[in-house]
């Protein structure tokens, strides 16, 4: 566990969090932990993002076999030089 100290929280924000804590019958600290847990639950973990990318890359490789594609930069240069 880590300890976090928050300075200079806008009074309106702090009051809203206090009201939420009271509404949920929680301490201010527990309410903040709950808010952070909800906010981070929507963020995919880094390994899952990488795994998803690798899966999509593998699918693309299967679709196209081991075919090599030309460099589009060279094609654009040729087109501009016409």
Question: Can you put this structure into words, describing what you see?
Answer:
The chain has 82 residues and is mainly α. The chain has one domain. It has 4 helices and no strands. α1 packs across α2. The longest helix has 19 residues. The mean pLDDT is 87.
For the sheet with most strands, the description reads:
none
> Using only CA atoms, what is the Rg?
25 Å
* Average pLDDT: 87
Residue runs with pLDDT of under 50 for 5 or more positions: none
Number of strands: 0
- Proportion of strand residues: under 5%
Structural class: mainly alpha
What is the H-and-E element order?
HHHH
Shape: elongated
Topology of helices and strands:
Blueprint: H1 11-23, H2 28-41, H3 46-64, H4 72-80
Domain Antitoxin FitA-like ribbon-helix-helix: 2-39
Protein name: Antitoxin FitA-like ribbon-helix-helix domain-containing protein
Pfam family, one: FitA-like_RHH
